[in-house]
């Protein structure tokens, strides 16, 4: 069996994640190729597309959302994702068991919860008009006064196919966005049958080559090994002897292909889509990126690996991007980071008068 080096795996993943060179495609096609983008907060996918697409402007993604080509909804692992409307309809039923299993997290807070009744009541409420989850919980509490209001809201979020209702703001959605039934917003019902075999291929197209544990980490679906074994896939080994599966036609660039400096937003899927994440981040740096309160900080890549953190702020008319490197960098890399960082700042803060990139502690 062919052994893929760590660098070969890294370059293959970066290629599929549009991080070796910026792609000349529209935002909806990019979101499809990426098999969705983590979207706990509305700004992050915009930054993720800026770093991956040639000449990307935030209005392009907003237009795709308004055209109902792209939606923001609870999907993979029960978290908010930006996905194409087609992918949401195609895979929502496949992932329904994972979402419904999330109700176990309620434990004692779920006492008295009757999911079927709550789902029916929630559908009726949300069919009338888009609502925030505060409004959903309050309305359901009137109907189910003995049940914990958070349990009512969580049950609705996990079991009713909903998408976030966009508004006329720069990043597409306010902090407390309203939700509306997916069928109503998109105009079609989710596909009735489960298609986990299709989801395997889409995952590998976006994140492969990968192990069954990687696919299960990303999707939450059990029996991942059987799904990959049954598919017509190529098999490789990594340097530790683990079997990697991949789509035969997927790109696997030369391991020496240059990987440019790239800035990733918080919660970028590149850092969340594998059980073993050393293909893009050294274990020693993970505590600095993955926080105890379950946030994933904004990072930047040097030679395809996470090499530090970044933050941006604007005070008055001055926009500043602060780098926190994990190790010293060469002058050439520093210049590349400053050039790319200033371009990112100009995207984030177009109204600023002055832009600067600084290194923390210096």
Structural class: alpha+beta
Helices, by number, come to: 14
Which strand-content bin applies to the residues? Answer: 15-25%
From the spread of the alpha carbons, the general shape counts as globular
Main sheet summary: 5 strands, mixed
Instruction: Please trace the helix and strand order, writing H or E for each element.
Output: HHEHHEEHHHHEEHHHHEEEHEEEHE
Question: What is the terminal-to-terminal distance?
Answer: 49 Å
CATH architecture of the domain at 281-359: 2-Layer Sandwich
The average pLDDT value, as a whole number, equals 95
Instruction: Provide the spatial order of strands within the biggest beta sheet.
Output: 8-9-10-11-12
Instruction: Evaluate the radius of gyration.
Output: 21 Å
The CATH topology assignment of the domain at 281-359 is GMP Synthetase, Chain A, domain 3
Count of individual beta strands:
12
Helix content: 25-40%
Model regions low in confidence, pLDDT < 50 over at least 5 residues: none
What is the CATH C-level name of the domain at 281-359?
A: Alpha Beta
InterPro entries: AlkZ-like (IPR009351)
Pfam family, one: AlkZ-like
Protein name: Winged helix DNA-binding domain-containing protein
